[in-house]
Amino acid sequence: MFGYAGRILHVDLTSGAVKTEKLDKETAKKYIGGIGLGMRLFLDNSKPGTDPFNPKNPLIFITGPLSGTMAASAGNSYAVVSKSPLTDGIAESKSHGFFGAELKRAGYDAVIFTGKSDKLVYAWIDDDSVQLLDAQHLKGKSPHEAEIAIREDLGDFYIRVSAIGEAGENLVRTACIINDEFRAIGRTGMGAVMGAKNLKAVAVRGTNDVNVADLEGFTEFVRMIHERMKGPATRKYRTLGTPENVLVLNAIQAMPTRNFTQASFEGAEKVSGEYLNERYIKKIIGCATCGMRCDHIGVVPEGPYKGTTARVEFECLWALGPNCGVDRLDAIIEAIYQCDHYGMDGISTGVIVSFAMDCYEHGILTKKDTDGLDLRFGNAEALVEMIKRTGSRKGWLGDVLAEGTMRAAEKIGRGAVKYANHIKGLELPGYDLRTLKTAALGFAVSYRGACHLRSGAYSPDVKGKVDRFKIEKGRGKIVMKGEDVYNVIDSLILCKFSRGVYYEELEDMAKYYTLATGIKMTPEELMQAGERINNLARVLNIREGKGTREYDQLPPKILTVPVPEEGVAKGAVVNQKEFDVGLDDYYAVRGWTKEGIPTIEKLKELGLDDLIPIVKNKLAKPEPSKGKKKGGK
Amino acid sequence: MASKSEKRKFVSGDPAKCVGCCVCEYICSMEHEKTYNPTKSRIRAVRLNPLVNLAIACRLCEDAPCVAACPRDALEQSEETGIIMVDEEKCNGCGWCIEACDYGAIQLHPETKVVYVCDLCDGEPKCVEWCPEEALDFTTKDILSQKARVAVVKKLFQEALKATT
């Protein structure tokens, strides 16, 4: 095969047994690679109702068809697929850097980890040789420290490592997996699944050629992408970076502030991309094979956090900054560094701390609960301390918050659920859904929980292509198209920062795919693959007892707390009625029932006939009437 | 007049510009090996930390130590271009040249098991052409020292320069 390695590696961590199987061309084309193929492999290698921390829950590292090639922004990628300890549904996350290319060069499209090691180990994949090595000396180390130690242990500088930190070892449900110092499999708690397997790291050295079907044509295509990457489509990422969003979103009152209380932040100037770049950013670097640069490396020049270095992007900056009422960039950079150090998703962590701050401000949490910490909004030191406690599960509150916002709210009780900002258990990212209502619909139906990168549904709102203050018929189609295209992007595993350089969108992507793999692919087929992947994910959630209408919901604050401050957005809130219109519209364009279940016809149309048994029972049931108990015998 | 060796052009990386993206490695393997494989690249990038990156290729040393180190006379330096030429019949992959090179620029080929080194792509190095940061220069040592002098004078006299513009 071209592009693909053609091999899937199975590693049983319980027995240490290793085997490989072949990847067939038909499956490869049908699910592309990355999250699509990953979710198919998840379906085929898991049983319904398995707890995410059960050894039988497979943890799948998977590359894309372009990983290991020279494809700009896609040659360096990989994804992880499993069942999420936050949502108890299907989980996927992608990362770039250097690790993904190395895994492909070692000769694998995917590595499926099952079982659980009886002590902490790391997997050492050296081309065909696969070993589980003792990792007890790496316990408590950050992902980056583990990376350095493994390189030294094995005596090879070019080994690439994807590892968990202390949070993953402690089964913190928001734990991430980090490769190449600061590139993360960030969302959905994949680091905790890895920790539950006693798998500290995956270390890879690959020396095989990665061949494409049309070497000259492919290289010319890459040259064209490189040229486009110097142009307007990537300007933002090459200059101020995603923190440019701070002032953009703030100006339109779409910047969630203090745990989604206000929609704008009075300290925005001080945490803006402009301010950040002028005072903190030391260098902008790039991932393997990429023609653009986006990694803004921030260094704190003075003060209590002097010398702290971290990669700064909008989402983490927002979550740990304005969302916690913090307007100090030095503390935000420190907070991002601590998230990376413990190995926790910066978005979820910020929203968890802001949730705790909101509870504290409303007297639901007191100093007794916080062990004396003054957890007011804006207390930067308290933010940093709370991150450390969460990562190490220190103290009562640290241990509770390590469970994620949804579970923490249940544990705290006392009405804390009112302040819990998550969808399906995954914390909200930095877009105010009260003032960006296409995004509200898009985030709610996302199969992995609250996510701006499952559909990009905030974009038409922010760009003014629709009336962002209402949900009406037609939004379903916008969300669906966004989702299907993003499924393709995440299965080819193109970096989303580069999405603008595919001027012809699916046509360019189909061309890229065919040049690499030699497998014919039309834009229409690619779009259908995107739709297939979304339906597959939906059915997987249904298999796990989720994935129906009642799970496509918005947090209480979005539905009940109007934007308080003056301005164009004053009073904005999502009402259930318009939201229901949106859901109906979305399910209708998806060809799903009113309950959000894919129909048999739809699954047949997409070649997912073997998934029909999973939905059949659900479909046979009459519309559930509220208040009644499930039919007894 | 500059001597011949001063006119020899080679590929030099600028650590201030290099971001460690390895595009040079991929295009090098594509050009020479007709595949994508950094482990077969004649230029290799090193990232020590996010702020410290540099790609390194053969620097065409005077009286190249790799040539001197070869016990089998398998290496020869071109009088004209300064390129290290490997006689693949004579080379047995013993690695003395690799040890002699301070820059890690000469490597053992993973398949042919003889050493290989930058050949400047017949005078048009592909890595220089492709580097997205323009961090690679195809230049001479004479020009490098000129640039360094101009840069330092600019720095020393930045106030005066500001006043004159």
Structural class of chain A, please? alpha+beta
Low-confidence stretches of chain A: 627-633
CATH topology annotation of the largest domain in chain A: Aldehyde Ferredoxin Oxidoreductase,  A, domain 1
Largest sheet of chain A: 6 strands, mixed
The outline of chain A comes out as globular
Q: How many helix segments of chain B?
A: 7
Helix content percent band of chain A: 25-40%
Write a structural description.
- The complex is a heterodimer of chains A (633) and B (165).
- Chain A has a 6-stranded mixed beta sheet with strand order 2-1-6-3-4-5. Chain A has a 6-stranded mixed beta sheet with strand order 8-7-12-9-10-11.
- The N and C termini of chain A lie far apart (54 Å).
- Chain A is an alpha+beta fold and 633 residues long.
- In chain A, strand 7 and strand 8 form a beta hairpin.
- Chain A folds into 3 domains: 7-205, Aldehyde Ferredoxin Oxidoreductase,  A, domain 1 (4-Layer Sandwich); 242-427, Aldehyde Ferredoxin Oxidoreductase Protein, subunit A, domain 2 (Orthogonal Bundle), CATH 1.10.569.10; 437-620, Aldehyde Ferredoxin Oxidoreductase Protein, subunit A, domain 3, CATH 1.10.599.
- Helix content of chain A is 39%, strand content 12%.
- The radius of gyration of chain A is 23 Å and the shape is globular.
- The longest helix of chain A is centred in the C-terminal third of the chain and has 21 residues, at 523-543.
- Mean pLDDT of chain A is 96; it is low at 627-633.
- Chain B has 165 residues and is an alpha+beta fold.
- Chain B has 2 domains: 6-57 and 118-165, Alpha-Beta Plaits (2-Layer Sandwich); 60-116, Alpha-Beta Plaits (2-Layer Sandwich), CATH 3.30.70.
- Chain B contains 7 helices and 8 strands; from the N terminus they run αβαββαββαββαβαα.
- In chain B, a hairpin with a 6-residue loop joins strand 4 (75-77) and strand 5.
- The longest helix of chain B has 16 residues, at 141-156.
- The mean pLDDT of chain B is 94.
- Chain A binds chain B through residues 68-70, 75, 98, 105, 157-158, 181-182, 207-212, 215, 219, 223, 226, 229-230, 282-293, 295, 297, 299, 309, 311, and chain B through 19-23, 26-27, 30, 33-37, 39-40, 46, 49-51, 53, 110, 130, 132-133.
